[in-house]
Amino acid sequence: MNTSSELVHDLLAALAEVPGLHPATLAKARQTPWGSNWDSLAVDITDETGGGHTVVVRVVATRLPLPPLVRRAEQALLAVVAASHVPVTRLCLEITDLDNTAFGGHP
Hints:
Largest sheet: 4 strands, mixed
Structural class: alpha+beta
Order of helices and strands: HEEEHE
CATH class: Alpha Beta
Number of domains: 1
Number of helices: 2
């Protein structure tokens, strides 16, 4: 594994500890022919000019209110970034959708 794929793995593991958020993947991801870690599609790591990397983690919220979820995810993800060997200069958490269960609906 290279350091970027290790970082993706560690970020997803940290996100799994945040109840109410899960990685945002394509609706048909389970039917795609490549790989088996579909959740990794929710994380992008790109090189920045001058060094460093931008990390974007896309999530779906299944609970409300959002501010406490975002704070908890921020703490978990920042801890992973701080411990990694990848020089991250920017970390973005994007909430791409609110699941029906966030409003008390059934899954």
